[in-house]
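Researcher: Here's the sequence for the chain we discussed earlier.
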Amino acid sequence: MSDFNASGGNGQMHFAKTSSFTVEDIYWGYMVRSGLGPSIGVVIAQAASFFLGACLLTAAIGILVLPTLMFDGDIGVMRMGAATLFGAMAAYLLWFASRGTRAELHVDTSVGEIREVICNRAGRPTTVGCYGFDTIGGVFLDEREDENWATLVLRYRNTAQTVCVAEGTEAQLMPLRDRLGQDLMVQAKTTRSRAA
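Model: Thanks. This is the structure I predict for it:
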């Protein structure tokens, strides 16, 4: 009997996939957090940036603390310039390495805009893209042919440019698609009524 229950539980888990995204309501709207991990390219780029940034920072400090006896005349100006250049490059590379990897979509219904945001490792957000509700041409599901998995995307105006909102099964994405569509429609009606 226990074997039957265990196999039945496994069968249910096969049919009910957990969603890879979460929706959090906030006073100004809601946030959609994608549960997908970062791509391998981003991880490698951030690791390389951290290594190069640490090397450049060490070089900048090393140039500054070298004894002045090793240099003649006006070399001090060149030393300061090289240390500043290395320090600036190190700061940029270390900033990129500490930047987060997971994008969030902030749907701000109070001002009528959608923001693509990446939070760094300390939790501070950086806005990557900002789109007004009036610039969104459509909300639709992009289904994959090989598996039961879809991507919810926003189309920017009527162009080929899209913004990925979340991934999951069609049943998981339909309520979010309907909510986004309703928010975009309500905002468009409000804008028209103000214009009239």
